[in-house]
Design a protein that fits this description.
Radius of gyration: 37 Å
Largest sheet: 2 strands, antiparallel
Strand content: under 5%
Strand order of the largest sheet: 1-2
Number of strands: 2
Distance between the termini: 124 Å
Order of helices and strands: HHHHHHHHEE
Structural class: mainly alpha
Length: about 300
């Protein structure tokens, strides 16, 4: 205390220029000390900020790399699922079992070789973040799987049954990839278009019972999706597909006479009803009780 008092008295007794120089020197030393402290704090802040943004960059780079791999896997699933669908359309009365067995084996190959890659990429992660990257492939896979199942058993392959086939592909210690309800329903909407083409092909071979079964099946899918679609949050894709589905239902219900096509291969020259007990007489038959048939000179 006496030291500070003596120092203060010295400053008061010292000449004015000397007092000013002493005060400036003290202020400068305090400022330098404060600057050094702030510099140390800023360095630590910059280092922590740099580390944080480095982690953010690594995370985004990893997500982008994974997205590219997922998109590639989805494209492979789409392409090979389409091949399964094309295989089903080769079906005829003579080779039905053979064609369907090959289609089922091809579908299993798609599951084991391509869908398994997608499962390994997405299992144990928040796979919903990358849904838009893999959704097209999953929808095509659902379409192929449900088409094969209907042609084999005449029933609808459920979402639980599809997801059950994915469980063996996943590591039991992590959360497995599961197909969500939206992708499943979008796949079912696409299925109706393939069933419409299949029904027209069956009519061309005189399999009206099978065509009628397809018609009832598609009508039931459309009826149920009509009840669900308005309640869906992300329903823009579904609304567009519902319109296409209605056209498919109408084409099957109207039927198509496929003895000779116009330029549009999905519209036959003559319509036949697939709803009741009508039958198609052979082209050129003398049975004139059937409208528009029994005429030999059809152009």
């Amino acid at each position: 205390m006496l030291f500070y008092a003596s120092k203060l008295s010295f400053l008061l007794m010292a000449p004015k220029p000397q007092r000013i120089r002493h005060m400036v020197g003290t202020t400068w030393q305090s400022a330098m000390k404060k600057a050094r402290t702030m510099s140390t704090d800023d360095t630590e802040t910059d280092s922590s900020m740099k580390d944080a943004f480095s982690k953010y960059a690594d995370y985004l780079n990893n997500i982008n790399d994974k997205r590219e791999r997922v998109v590639k896997a989805s494209r492979d699933i789409t392409m090979n699922s389409k091949k399964v669908i094309f295989q089903v359309h080769r079906m005829s009365k003579q080779n039905k079992e053979e064609v369907l067995d090959k289609a089922v084996n091809d579908l299993k190959a798609v599951t084991d070789q391509y869908l398994s890659r997608l499962v390994k990429e997405l299992q144990g992660t928040d796979f919903w973040k990358l849904r838009r990257a893999y959704s097209p492939g999953v929808q095509e896979y659902v379409e192929a799987a449900t088409l094969c199942n209907f042609c084999k058993t005449g029933t609808l392959l459920t979402l639980d049954e599809i997801n059950a086939t994915l469980l063996p592909l996943s590591d039991p210690s992590v959360e497995p990839l599961q197909i969500n309800i939206l992708d499943y329903m979008l796949g079912l909407a696409d299925l109706t278009g393939e069933l419409m083409r299949l029904a027209i092909g069956r009519i061309s071979e005189g399999e009206l019972d099978f065509a009628e079964k397809i018609c009832s099946f598609v009508r039931e899918i459309y009826r149920n999706l009509t009840l669900i679609a308005p309640e869906m949050d992300d329903s823009s894709d579904m609304k567009q597909k519902m319109e296409t589905m209605l056209q498919s239902v109408m084409k099957i219900e109207n039927g198509s006479r496929v003895f000779r096509f116009h330029l549009d291969p999905e519209k036959a020259c003559f319509s036949v009803h697939v709803r009741g007990s009508e039958y198609i007489p052979l082209l050129g038959s003398a049975d004139t009780s059937y409208p528009l048939l029994g005429m030999l000179d059809i152009e």
